[in-house]
Design brief:
The protein has 446 residues and is of the alpha+beta class. It has helices at residues 4-9, 19-26, 28-38, 51-61, 84-94, 156-172, 203-210, 214-222, 227-230, 234-239, 281-291, 308-313, 315-323, 332-340, 358-363, 378-392, 401-416, 424-435, and strands at residues 45-48, 65-69, 79-81, 103-107, 113-122, 126-134, 147-149, 176-186, 189-196, 245-251, 272-278, 301-305, 327-330, 346-347, 369-372, 397-398, 419-420, 444-445. Helix 4 (51-61) packs across helix 5 and helix 11 crosses helix 17 (401-416).
Amino acid sequence: MNLAIPLEEAEVKILGTSPDSIDLAEDRGRFGRLLDRLGIPQAPNGVARSYDEAKQVALQINYPVMVRPSYVLGGRAMEVVYNDAMLESYIARATTISPDHPILIDKFLDNAIEIDVDALSDGTNTYIGGIMEHIEAAGIHSGDSACVLPTKSLSKDILDTIKKYTHSLAKALKVKGLMNMQLAIKDNVVYLLEVNPRASRTVPFVSKATGVPLAKLAAKIMVGKSLPEVLPDFQTREHAKLPWTAVKEAVLPWAKFPGVNAILGPEMRSTGEVMGIDTDFPAAYAKSQAAADSPLPEKGTILVSLKNPHKEQAIQIGKRLAKMGFSLVGTTGTAEAFEKAGIAIKTVKKIAEGRTNVVDIITNREVALVINTPSGGRSQSDGSAIRQAATRSRIPIITTLSAAEAATTALEATKKESWTIKSIQDYYKEVHNLKKGKTPTKTSVK
């Protein structure tokens, strides 16, 4: 992305999407005008080259805001900022990363559903390879968030809007090859977060989940082939329903970096990805956790320590875990909230309250799973110690409420029925069998 325009100026031939289109997608002013013309909404945003400019933008769109340098990958130096002091500190650090390009500032859409789209285009025709729904809410980097394909909670109207935006942007940007889009859905409005006219890290997942080799086809398009030539049935494939569900999960390196705070945010931390696939979401999600070396426990004690806004929201999760036979233990505030709701839970001391405390029971491996959502103040310090202890003891840890919900659903399903076990090739064969009217086969193990 950074080299495309200088290479073109040096008369190097650039294959695929033109450098001008790459710049159009990255230049906030040009891109904003394009979206206005196409009628595609963005969250309120602005650009800044200094703290004073950034403060004015933040005041106009209101905190919290997401800030990041332009022309960087992997969410590098991307942060959610809640006040002027945090913004001033960020600007001092971030401007050294990409001094030739402004800081991008967007209104942070809290509790939104985030979506990834991978598409293949020849500049005229476009094939949507996959629409992925993130498990974690917006604010967690897409590379660190689990996601599901096909989506599990989006309405037909929302999906139709996403498809419309994808086709419009691919054509407007004259994409020749791969394109990735990231969107957020809040209050039934689909906001565009960003478009990257290039391959994304989700392409291998989408290719394996659907059986369409996107990178191979993109390479052919980049050297002159048309989409109908490389994928003759692209229109049929785009509208076909997969008879299975695939879940991508990030592999995080916490165990290899003792002392690191195991917390997810807008800057990417994962070092790899795995996929779980089955006939439905719960089983596929459970497989993805096992593949990421964080298998969900079948029995035992679960430690729950939540920040204040999450305690009431987690009541139903607690009831479901208790109903499955798990013993629950929680730090003071969480335990009190659960007890008031009639959930059986034991209270464990926080670190400052003496021994035996929450870190002790993790270190002694008295728990099989940790659910801890980070917050501020002393609980942040306790939370960091909890997550570090779980990492050292190689106990699975969940740090978002949405992931806890997904894990609970997966546990309920796997306790009731067996996993489907078959090769990826057998899944692909099902598509052809369905076309011929044959019933899918299922081989199961417990």
